[in-house]
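Appendix B: a complete holo record

For completeness, this appendix reproduces one full record from the ligand-bound portion of the collection. The bound molecule is zinc ion. The inputs are the chain sequence and the ligand SMILES; the output is the full three-dimensional arrangement of the complex, encoded as C-alpha cells. No fields have been trimmed.
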Amino acid sequence: MVPDGSGMSLGARGISPNGAAPRCEHLDALVPVPPQSSICRECQAAGADWVGLVVCLTCGWVACSDDSPRRHALAHYEETDHPVTRALRPGSARRWCYVHRRAV
Ligand SMILES: [Zn+2]
Ligand SMILES: [Zn+2]
Ligand SMILES: [Zn+2]
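The structure of the chain with zinc ion bound, as generated:
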C-alpha cells in the first residue's frame, strides 16, 4: 500500500477546452517524473537533427517529436506502450496521447 493518496487530487483542473472529446484516462495513471535529458539521445548518437523534443510522461524519456525526421518519440511509444508525451520546450504544456491520437 502506498501511504500518500496520489491520484485523489490529480486532474481536478483537467477540464479540457474541447469538452466534446472523451476524457483521456491515460492521464490518470501518470505520476510526475523529471525529464531524463534535454536532447534526443538517439538522434545525437546518430548525428541527426531534430525539430522538437517531447518527454514521455510515464518514464521521463526524452525523444524527438513527430515533426522530426526520425520520430523517436513515436518509436518509444511503439516499444513501450507509454501513451502520453509533453513538449519539452519551457512554457509549453501541450500533451499528446498516442493511444487517443490527440492532444489531451
Ligand atoms: Zn489517452
Ligand atoms: Zn530522435
Ligand atoms: Zn516512456
